[in-house]
Amino acid sequence: MTDVTYLTLEGKEALKRELDLLVNVQRPELAAKLSEAVSQGDLKENADYHDAKEKQAFLEGRIQQLEKMLRSAVIIEKDANSSFVGMGSVVTIIEEGYDDEETYTIVGAAEANPSSNKISNESPVGKALLGRAKGDKVKVKTPVGETVFKIKSVK
């Protein structure tokens, strides 16, 4: 069975834009650099050639990865009436013993970006929050020990 890639609609569009850029801009640019490097002659000691080949391998790998994610994409649609945390939920939590609220959107791993407050449903915090509701306390095992969060709101 194919792995599922959970994405918001915005996340899917961002991956499509990245794929378009790689295929239609960066791939042709790299092909031109590679062709130029080949024209320089001796490939054994041609740093431009080896650099371009390495970049080409990374580029093709990323293109394949994006194509696979888009083929297996399942769009996250949050049930607006649900009071339970699910994919696409915006959850505000408070760590026990602290006053600062933290708000996260639960997304698939491909779209996770903690610095943008998007956490994966597969992360320890994301897993602990799934299926829970406002007022619930959840225990999360982290590398530094167990942390308890209280759910302030679910949207």
Structure report:
This protein has 155 residues and is of the alpha/beta class. It has two domains: 71 residues, Helix Hairpins (Orthogonal Bundle), CATH 1.10.287; 65 residues, Transcription elongation factor, GreA/GreB, C-terminal domain (Chitinase A, domain 3, Roll). The chain is 40% helix and 25% strand. The protein has three helices and seven strands; from the N terminus they run E-H-H-E-E-E-E-H-E-E. A five-stranded mixed β-sheet has the order 5-4-3-7-6. The two termini are 32 Å apart. The mean pLDDT is 91.
SSE diagram, text form:
Layout: E1 5-7, H1 9-39, H2 47-71, E2 73-75, E3 90-95, E4 101-107, E5 118-120, H3 124-129, E6 137-142, E7 145-154
Parallel strand pairs: 1-2, 4-5
Antiparallel strand pairs: 3-4, 3-7, 6-7
Q: Which key features would you list for this structure?
A:
155 residues; alpha/beta; Helix Hairpins; Chitinase A, domain 3; 2 domains; 5-stranded mixed beta sheet; two-stranded parallel ribbon; 3 helices
TL;DR?
This protein has 155 residues and is an alpha/beta fold. Helices cover 40% and strands 25% of the residues.
Helix content: 40-55%
CATH superfamily of the largest domain: Transcription elongation factor, GreA/GreB, N-terminal domain
Numbering strands along the chain, what is their spatial order in the largest sheet? 5-4-3-7-6
Give the overall pLDDT as a whole number: 91
Oligomeric state of this protein: single chain
Number of domains: 2
Shape, per Cα inertia axes: elongated
Contiguous runs where pLDDT drops below 50 for at least 5 residues: none
Find the CATH topology of the largest domain. Answer: Helix Hairpins
Strand content: 15-25%
Integer-rounded radius of gyration: 22 Å
Tally the beta strands.
7
Q: Cα distance, first to last residue?
A: 32 Å
Count of runs of 4 or more consecutive helical residues? 3
Q: Please provide the ordered H/E string of secondary-structure elements.
A: EHHEEEEHEE
CATH architecture of the largest domain: Orthogonal Bundle
